[in-house]
Amino acid sequence: ETQESPITNVKMNWRTMELSWETSKKFPKYRCTIMDRERESIDEEVNTTLCKFPVEQYLPLHEGVFLTIEVLNTNISKSCTFIPGGVNGSAIENFSCVIYNISFMNCTWQAGRGAPGDAQYFLYWQNSR
């Protein structure tokens, strides 16, 4: 019989790389892990319901990642899989970036032909290795 996890409402803010959750019980310490498909991972230990992963750390998010929250010294955990997706035909088209004056970049794109009228696109930049 599996027990319902007290960890709920898991959210990931991809812009700030912050993982947050709610819990029905207060625990002293958590370990958060983000792992890519190549099994490269980043762990953080915290005493709150918020983990901040380094924004500059490169992980190929577009290929999907696994997120795990563990309550230390217990068998309580919560795992989630993030696989990017969207409406068929909603992927951006004609994506282009131009770097100028060494430290500025201008990117443009068009909404996909199958994208709904209220589609919003966000571009996040991370340092590469």
From TrEMBL:
<dbReference type="InterPro" id="IPR015321">
    <property type="entry name" value="TypeI_recpt_CBD"/>
</dbReference>
<dbReference type="InterPro" id="IPR040907">
    <property type="entry name" value="IL3Ra_N"/>
</dbReference>
<dbReference type="GO" id="GO:0016020">
    <property type="term" value="C:membrane"/>
</dbReference>
<keyword id="KW-0472">Membrane</keyword>
<keyword id="KW-0812">Transmembrane</keyword>
<protein>
    <submittedName>
        <fullName>CSF2R factor</fullName>
    </submittedName>
</protein>
<keyword id="KW-0732">Signal</keyword>
<dbReference type="Pfam" id="PF09240">
    <property type="entry name" value="IL6Ra-bind"/>
</dbReference>
<dbReference type="Pfam" id="PF18611">
    <property type="entry name" value="IL3Ra_N"/>
</dbReference>
<feature type="domain" description="Type I cytokine receptor cytokine-binding">
    <location>
        <begin position="94"/>
        <end position="128"/>
    </location>
</feature>
<dbReference type="InterPro" id="IPR013783">
    <property type="entry name" value="Ig-like_fold"/>
</dbReference>
<feature type="domain" description="IL-3 receptor alpha chain N-terminal">
    <location>
        <begin position="7"/>
        <end position="78"/>
    </location>
</feature>
<keyword id="KW-1133">Transmembrane helix</keyword>
<keyword id="KW-0675">Receptor</keyword>
<keyword id="KW-0325">Glycoprotein</keyword>
<dbReference type="InterPro" id="IPR036116">
    <property type="entry name" value="FN3_sf"/>
</dbReference>
